[in-house]
From TrEMBL, chain A:
<protein>
    <recommendedName>
        <fullName>Pyruvate dehydrogenase E1 component subunit alpha</fullName>
        <ecNumber>1.2.4.1</ecNumber>
    </recommendedName>
</protein>
<comment type="subunit">
    <text>Tetramer of 2 alpha and 2 beta subunits.</text>
</comment>
<keyword id="KW-0786">Thiamine pyrophosphate</keyword>
<keyword id="KW-0670">Pyruvate</keyword>
<keyword id="KW-0560">Oxidoreductase</keyword>
<feature type="domain" description="Dehydrogenase E1 component">
    <location>
        <begin position="93"/>
        <end position="394"/>
    </location>
</feature>
<dbReference type="InterPro" id="IPR029061">
    <property type="entry name" value="THDP-binding"/>
</dbReference>
<dbReference type="Pfam" id="PF00676">
    <property type="entry name" value="E1_dh"/>
</dbReference>
<dbReference type="InterPro" id="IPR017597">
    <property type="entry name" value="Pyrv_DH_E1_asu_subgrp-y"/>
</dbReference>
TrEMBL record, chain B:
<comment type="subunit">
    <text>Tetramer of 2 alpha and 2 beta subunits.</text>
</comment>
<dbReference type="InterPro" id="IPR033248">
    <property type="entry name" value="Transketolase_C"/>
</dbReference>
<dbReference type="InterPro" id="IPR009014">
    <property type="entry name" value="Transketo_C/PFOR_II"/>
</dbReference>
<keyword id="KW-0150">Chloroplast</keyword>
<keyword id="KW-0786">Thiamine pyrophosphate</keyword>
<keyword id="KW-0560">Oxidoreductase</keyword>
<dbReference type="GO" id="GO:0004739">
    <property type="term" value="F:pyruvate dehydrogenase (acetyl-transferring) activity"/>
</dbReference>
<dbReference type="GO" id="GO:0046872">
    <property type="term" value="F:metal ion binding"/>
</dbReference>
<comment type="function">
    <text>The pyruvate dehydrogenase complex catalyzes the overall conversion of pyruvate to acetyl-CoA and CO(2). It contains multiple copies of three enzymatic components: pyruvate dehydrogenase (E1), dihydrolipoamide acetyltransferase (E2) and lipoamide dehydrogenase (E3).</text>
</comment>
Length: 432, 408
């Protein structure tokens, strides 16, 4: 697809959608032919319904390419997708993600954190929609855009903020940083800087789950692994290799593609021969689903199916979430390439606004409830910053710790003793 | 690169009889050292002293190998225990080690191409799939980076995988995972996750396998922080190191050599491991320290035969642990002989020898009477032609010449 012509067409097309309307758009030309504001192929015209902000409909919002995931028929009386508690939980999680990332930006520009920081603003529905369905023993593997995945999985905001500040109280003792969030307790297996390199790790975690069930005879082990990655990763070899292995051995894993259309400055369309990522699932023998990633309830419905499949031992699923990042790729990205119209379009589909609307319109929560959550989260984030500020920086002695699980790996020194037996060794005063 | 030395006149001056082969004039510049003349020293039969150190924390596992290139005629008291032991080939020793560890710990599993039904391209995993099943001995698709990463993910979540690269060279495809995840994850996670993985495979220059199947990856991997590297060379240390590597909490890269799989040796029946961080004293000596590993050990021992006949007394150490170096064994030897020759199969540039030279110079410079000499493979892609391949790696004649030059 010629992206230049796409861009040209975008700028001249009138915008036919009314972003403030809560009900379904009567104008089917949300994606004007032959190009769409999604910048994806128009071959998925069927999926135009997924862009609607109508959150009442259970059906027609999720389209699977394979037969395995059945289409849900909408009931005559639309029932609610969530309870009040669930709704508030989802809302709080998304607000936490948003507020935390906004605070990260502030702190970065104030010089409290450095390096590459990749923020998740706009994609909260994917993290919340999926991770809130998991148990603690389920695993999550992410990429460098991992702060919100960590928060959703249960890593305390204090630990994440400290890690970003490079303090010893960080979840990785300050040794990982923004792109390497790990938590053994919450089974967050990283945080990877190179795209695609986390997917095999996720596949391995899923393999362990299957191994535990079948070899170690832990019959109730039904732990599921979620692998989050972006559209750029879907052109990488490790992605395809792991789709193959996961489907081959029916591993309990869900591959979640956060397709935000951009890999730094590379548009997904310019990089991919067939931009419909969900179609790549059935090529490997697993269902491929496309879902509106700006709608947390739709994501949650799909996630339930996919995670349920994995738990029952039916194998992996590929879920493509159409989403968008409101900020640049990282805090160093001037974000000049993306069309302001595209940004405005997705800003209008802010997942937090959408959920808020749903909750209020369905009387699941009042404005006051939601404002209370806002304030609570503000406090949590402020507290996290304070905690991180006051935490100590790592001392020199921490440098050589954790290089090896068994420090005998540093070897035997000239005096015949293991280097690690020297009490001064990890302080770095001994010769390394 | 392999140093080609011209015949040294001094060597010719030596008599060939071993008992009075030492001309003290050669060592006149170091009067304070005493050296013993090895009377009637015949090459290569070094009796084991019968002690086995099974304590992994023990420093000096005094394992003396009964013969460097094990042949039936030479096997004297090879076993180090009261039991007679059993004889097997090196690949069988690896298999035995693997099998015993898999029996001992159900979390140990194997992954790799053709490890299951095919039994491994060098038969190291033969029979294991039948015994332990297809999931524990997993035949993977041809996707090194991904199945190595899968092994790492499995290791992080509680298993103890042994990942096989069908040929070590294929692990180049897994470099992303080995460097970033295998080596670094324990650190970047602040110590939360351990990666008790063993990555093994055959490497080295074989018989006309061509450039890409003749690679020595130890030099590429040695800089990766967080991993250990060992190279086995005899059935005894193959089994012992394999078991130690599997039991280790650190990620270990285990180098085997394509040409050593059919070495035969008698090994003990009982359970034993070899310390991952220790070097092995192959032949004690007085005149020169020869540091080597893997296949080159045998070239060195072959050269040692000639050297002994010429009146030299080389001390041969198989360093075994490529990362970290056993500076105790190496240091003691340097302090004794004051001359060091390194014989290795990897390339000269950035190889194990280069690192060894740096380590020895930094730690034992005062004890050296001569510059360290390093014989490595030529910095060329290994040619197919047999004649060219032969001169790519270090041959015994070159080792002899090098020692003669060093001991001038």
């Amino acid at each position: 697809m010629n992206s230049a012509s796409c861009a040209a067409k975008i700028s001249t097309q009138p915008f036919s959608l009314n972003p403030t309307s809560p009900t379904s758009h009567d104008n089917p030309l949300v994606f004007p032919k032959p190009t769409s504001l999604f910048l994806g192929s128009t071959r998925k015209i069927r999926l135009s319904s997924s862009s609607k902000l109508n959150l009442h409909r259970r059906s027609g919002t999720v389209v699977a390419v394979s037969d395995v995931v059945k289409q849900k028929k909408s009931k005559s009386t639309p029932s609610l997708l969530i309870t009040k508690e669930e709704g508030l939980e989802l809302f709080e999680d998304m607000i936490l993600g948003r507020a935390f990332e906004d605070m990260c930006a502030q702190m970065y520009y104030r010089g409290k954190m450095f390096g590459f920081v990749h923020l998740y603003n706009g994609q909260e529905a994917v993290s919340t929609g999926f991770i809130k369905l998991l148990k603690q023993q389920d695993s999550v593997v992410s990429t460098y855009r991992d702060h919100v995945h960590a928060l959703s999985k249960g890593v305390p905001a204090r630990a994440v903020m400290s890690e970003l500040f490079g303090k010893t109280t960080g979840c990785c003792r300050g040794q990982g940083g923004s792109m390497h969030m790990f938590s053994r307790e919450h089974n967050l297996l990283g945080g990877f800087a190179f795209i695609g390199e986390g997917i095999p790790v996720a596949t391995g975690a899923a393999f362990t789950s299957k191994y535990k069930r079948e070899i170690l005879k832990e019959a109730d082990c039904d732990h599921v692994t979620l692998a989050f990655f972006g559209d750029g990763t879907c052109n990488n070899g490790q992605f395809f290799e792991c789709l193959n292995m996961a489907a081959l051995w029916k591993l309990p894993i869900v591959f979640v593609v956060e397709n935000n259309l951009w890999a730094i400055g590379m548009s997904h369309l310019r990089a991919t021969s067939d931009p419909q990522i969900y179609k790549k699932g059935p090529a490997f023998g697993m269902p491929g689903i496309h879902v509106d990633g700006m709608d947390v309830l739709k994501v949650r419905e799909v996630a339930k199916e996919a995670i349920g499949r994995a738990r029952r031992g039916e194998g992996p699923t590929l879920v493509e979430c159409e989403t968008y990042r409101f900020r640049g790729h990282s805090l160093a990205d001037p974000d000049e390439l993306r069309d302001p119209a595209e940004k405005a379009y997705y800003a209008a589909r802010d997942p937090i606004t959408a959920l808020k609307k749903y909750l209020i319109e369905n009387s699941l929560a009042s404005e006051a409830d939601l404002k209370a959550i806002d304030r609570k989260i503000d406090e949590v984030v402020e507290d996290a910053v304070e905690f991180a500020d006051e935490s100590p920086v790592p001392s020199r002695s921490q440098l050589l710790e954790n290089v090896f699980a068994d420090p005998k790996g540093f070897g035997i020194g000239p005096d015949g003793r293991y280097r690690c037996e020297d009490p001064k060794f990890t302080e770095g005063t001994a010769h390394v | 690169m392999a140093a080609i030395f011209q015949g040294v006149g001094a060597a010719a001056a030596l008599s060939s009889s071993p008992s009075n082969s030492f001309d003290s004039k050669k060592f006149v510049f170091s009067p304070c050292r005493s050296f013993s003349v090895r009377k009637g020293a015949s090459f290569a039969v070094v009796r084991s002293d019968g002690r086995v150190n099974l304590n992994p924390k023990g420093r000096r596992a005094q394992q003396l190998i009964s013969n460097a290139v094990a042949t039936k005629s030479d096997s004297a008291a090879a076993s180090s225990s009261s039991k007679p032991g059993h004889e097997l080939l090196l690949f069988e020793a690896l298999q035995e080690g693997l099998e015993e560890e898999m029996e001992r710990d159900p979390r140990v599993c194997v992954m790799g191409e053709d490890v299951g039904h095919y039994g491994g391209s060098y038969k190291v995993t033969k029979g294991l799939a039948k015994k332990f099943g297809d999931l524990r001995v997993l035949d993977t698709p041809i996707a090194e980076n991904s199945f190595t990463g899968m092994g790492i993910g499995a290791a992080m979540t509680g298993l103890r995988p042994v990942v096989e690269g069908m040929n070590m060279g294929f692990l180049l495809l897994a470099f992303n995972q080995i460097s970033n995840n295998c080596g670094m994850l324990h650190y970047t996670s602040g110590g939360q996750f351990t990666i008790p993985i063993v990555i093994r495979g055959p490497g080295g220059v074989g018989r006309q396998l061509g450039a890409e199947h003749s690679q020595r990856l130890e030099s590429y991997f040695q800089s990766i922080p967080g991993i250990q590297m060992v190279a086995c060379s005899t059935p005894y240390n193959a089994k012992g190191l394999m078991k130690a590597a599997i039991r280790s909490e650190n990620p270990v890269i285990f180098f085997e050599h394509v040409l050593l799989y059919n070495l035969k040796e008698r090994i003990p029946d009982e359970d034993y491991i070899c310390n991952l961080e220790e070097a092995e004293m192959v032949r004690p000596g007085e005149h020169v320290t020869i540091l080597t590993y893997s296949r080159m050990r045998y070239h060195v021992m072959q050269a040692a035969k000639t050297l002994v006949n010429k009146g030299y007394d080389p001390e041969v150490i198989d360093i075994r642990s490529l990362k970290p170096f056993d500076l105790y064994t190496i240091g003691n030897s340097v302090k004794k002989t004051h001359r060091v020759l390194i014989v290795e199969e990897c390339m000269r540039t950035g190889g194990i020898g280069a690192s060894l030279i740096a380590a020895i110079t930094e730690n034992f410079n005062d004890y050296l009477d001569a510059s360290i000499m390093c014989l490595s493979s030529q910095d060329v892609p290994t040619p197919y032609a047999g004649t060219l391949e032969e001169v790519t790696v270090v041959q015994p004649a070159q080792i002899v010449t090098a020692v003669e030059q060093l001991c001038q």
